[in-house]
Amino acid sequence: MKKIVIIFVFFVTSISLFSCEDADDKAVPPKLIIKFKFDPTQARLNNLGQPSTLPAGHAAQSPIFNTISSHYIEFAPNANTQLGAGQIVYHGAETNQGGDNAIDFSQAKIVAEGETFLEIPLSQLAAGTYQWMRVSLSYENFQINIRKPDSSFEYPGTLASFVGFNTYIGTHSIGNVFFPVNANKPQGYWEFALNDYPYSASGQAPAGATTVPNPIAATSPIPLNSCVVTGQFSAPLTITGIEKKDVVITLSLSTNNSFEWIDTNGNGKYDPSQGETVVDMGLRGLIPTYTK
Predict the structure, then answer these.
(1) φ, ψ for residue 26 (rounded to 5)?
(2) How far is Cα 136 from Cα 229, in angstroms, rounded to an integer?
(3) I need a surface site. Which of 147, 155, 164, 241 has the fewest CB within 10 A?
(4) What is the CA 139 to chain-centroid distance, rounded?
């Protein structure tokens, strides 16, 4: 009887060991997941990451965002980390099809709020502590209100904004409206179509007018027209390299009065038919958070 008990215990132990080994073999490595969030109540910042108000003669709206795309994402250990010297986890496709080097919009990944923009093995982010994130935004698609010609009413429309350093665009569409560009466009190019009405337009914001908040500009500047928005974690993100769970990063972007124009008639309404021109479509701040 004793011999039977010993054999039974050995058999059960062996099964347990094999079960553990099977579970370990099937364990899924943790991932780094990055998503976007749009917040019209988040602080409205200037290029230096300081609170910003509208200049005299300008007006603005907090647009309703549909989608966004990024061209570059980097984790920076501290405020002295120079652009490119941190941990780069994403760099989008580029092309010379339009002449100079440019973002290849045909290959851009475009997502809505809460959708996964990037999902890679967490092992691709080196172990260390990171205080800052840098995100080069390249494309925005959002809803704004405009006043149509000969009308006192505001109408909703969709605006596509290309805020990357330079973007090669083929034929782009907003709904059933097509814009055959087939060329490079510098930062600030935009296209607009009224929702359910036969009106569309395109244009170019002034060079260097797009706001790109960088609170650490004094120690770690960014190139002009790069649209690399910089934001600080409230508590540094530490990666040990032995994580068992996914790390999810949420990039909260301030849309607080981020669509800005010259208000020639002072009514605070966007009147393109009266010659009012777009000045700025830059996001107004970045707050990165994480769960792990």
Answers:
(1) -90, 0
(2) 6
(3) 241
(4) 8
* Residue (of 64, 67, 139, 145) closest to 108 by Cα position: 139
Tens of pLDDT, residue by residue over 192-243, are 999 988 889 999 999 999 999 999 999 999 998 889 999 999 999 999 999 9
- Six-digit token string for 143: 């809803």
Q: How far apart are CA 214 and CA 260, in angstroms?
A: 19
* CA 254 from centroid of its chain's CA atoms: 11
Q: Is the pTM of this model over 0.85?
A: yes
Cβ neighbours, 10 Å, residue 282: 27
- Going by DSSP bridges, is the β-strand pair 128-147/154-162 parallel, antiparallel, or unpaired? antiparallel
Q: What is the pLDDT of residue 280?
A: 97
Tokens of 185: 């466009």
Q: How far apart are CA 170 and CA 166, in angstroms?
A: 13
Could you write out the DSSP letters of every residue in the chain?
A: -HHHHHHHHHHHHHHHHHHHHHHHHHPPPPEEEEEEEEETTS--B-TTS-B--PPTTEEEE--EEEEEEEEEEEEESSTTPPTTSSEEEEE--EE-TTSS-EEEGGG---B-TTSEEEEEEGGGS-SEEEEEEEEEEEEEEEEEEEEPTT-SSEEEEEEEEE-SSEEEEEEEEETTEEEEEEEEEETTEEEEEETTSS-EEEEEPPTT-S----TTTTTS---TT--EEEEEEEEEEEE-S---S-EEEEEEEE-TT-EEEE-TTSSSS--GGGT--EEE-----EEEEEE-
Separation in Å, CA 62 to CA 152, 254, 282:
20, 9, 11
Does 30 score more than 50 pLDDT? Answer: yes
